[in-house]
Structure formats: structure tokens, C-alpha cells
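> @MW can you paste both from yesterday?
MW: sure, first one:
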Amino acid sequence: MRLLRAALVLAIACQIGACAVIFQGTRENIPVQSAPSGASVATNPATGTFTTPTTLDLQRKETYVLTFTAAGYSPASFTISSHLQAGYVVADVLLTGLIGVIVDAATGAWYSLHPESATVSLTRTTGMLGPDTIRIEIGDAHNGQVGVNSTVPVHVTVTRVP
């Protein structure tokens, strides 16, 4: 009896509106990351400028090109494509008739975005040698000597302050 009731509710819901709009909506959240983090991300078509890591709320019916930029790194692009989901088209035709087809076609709810996330590694520009971070630790003076530790070789000049 529960299965029959659930099927009846589903059939009524699809008759009232469009299947894809009801089940998945017209927008999709896409997680976006970059290495290094903190890169700027612009979308085309334009939806704004964001800083990684972030989640973009994008329309399913559009294909987007994401452009990543960060100081000291070459820009990188990433494409998120819109793909038609045939199952929703068939469900609209069979269950909702012309109303569902019109609504889902106009809103783009038939589509999904692929890939479902974006991860981009930016490449350093030439002339920028060395690691991102150099950590230097200076220890207390013992017997007139100061201990210096570094994560990479560095040149240290010590000047006595009077």
C-alpha cells in the first residue's frame, strides 16, 4: 500500500510540474579548489569572482570556463560542461506531457554539469625560484653563539646591535 501511495504522489507531482525541476532543480553546486589555495577564479559566463577553495552555484543549462589566477603563477582554465540527461526528457514526455517538457527545456533542469568538481594546479612563472615558504628559527644565545635552523639553505648575516 505504501508503494502504491508513493507512486501516486510521484505521478501527481510530475503532472503538476516538470520532473527534472522537481527532482534536481535548475542549479548545481560545484566545489572548486586550486594549488596554491587563495587563487582568484572568474567564470565565463560571468557569475562573479571568487577565491579558492570555494563552491560555485551554477546554472545547469550553461557551459562554463573557469579562469584561475594568482600572483607569481601562470593563469589556468578549466571547463565545466552542461550535458543533457535523457532520462528526465523521457520522464517528462511520458509523465507530464507538454507542460513538463516546456518547463524543463526552458529552465535547463534536464541538464547536469560535468565534472562535478574542479581542482587546478597553477604553474609558477619563470624567474620565481625557490619554495613557497622558508621557515627560519633562531634559538637563544649560549656562550655567545646563536643557533639558526632553516628549511632550505639561506645566507644569514649577523650584526651586533649596541
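MW: second:
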Amino acid sequence: MRNLSLVCLLTAFITTSASAGFLIDPYIGAGQFKSTADLSSLEQSESISATGARVGYSFLLFSAGVDYQMASVDGSDTTNTSVFVGVDMPILVRAWAEVFVSSDTEGDLDFKDGTSIGLGFTGLPFVSLNVELQNINYEAELLGTKYEVKTAATVFSISLPLDL
């Protein structure tokens, strides 16, 4: 009887082994976008739609990789690439942070820097409901004068995080 208890205990520990592997997380979303230029105090507010995917590696509760996003703001298309790190908490919540490495926009804006943080609810089967706050800064030139354009976006999205 004692040996049976020991075997059951060891089996419980062996079957709860860690998983690691390839992560792919396609998403689609919409939200609000605001931009402000240094030359004027005007703030533009418009809607944003975004699609993309986070691709990387996951190990235990942590993940890291690259996020590729295609966004559209009032008919103007933007392509963002960032590096992310994330954590999947055991309480149906996941969080991640990103640092943008490039952002290609239509127009005369040059990418300067950008960051993003996100939070997702994973209580539904196979699906995550997310909110992400993005801040990207650009540099532009008008009549020989350089100025900054600061953007902020709040994107609500639905994604399908897959650990392969």
C-alpha cells in the first residue's frame, strides 16, 4: 500500500511537466488613436484597426518574440515591428510589454521610438480578449524645421494564442 502511494505521488509530479515551444498568436482589433505634433497644440483623435501576429518562443509561464502589426488610421496604413516579452499567469490573465524597432507610415514621418504594454483575459477556450496601450514617437520636418509627432493608441483585440 505504501509503494502504491509513492507511485501515485511520483506519477502526479511527472505528468505535470513543463511545456515549451513555438508560440504563434494572431490577432485582430480596433480602438482609439491620438496624435499630437510639437508645432501645434492640436490633438487629433481617430479610430484605428489593427491585425497582426506575435511569433516567438514560450517556456513555462514566459514568452518572447517578435510582433508584426498592420494598422490603419483614417485610411493611412502603418506597419509596426516590435520585440515582446510576456508572462501567462495561472489566473486566466496574461501580460506583455513591447519595444518597437520600426514603424513604417505613409507620409513624411520618420520612426523615433515606441513602447507598448498589453493585458489579456484567457478565460475563454482558445481565445484571448486583450487591451493594449501603444505609444510611438515620430520625427518630421516642415520647411527645414524638425518636430516630433507623438501618438498614443488603445487597441482592443481578440487573439488565438497557440503553443505548438
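> thanks! DSSP finds one helix and nine strands in the chain.
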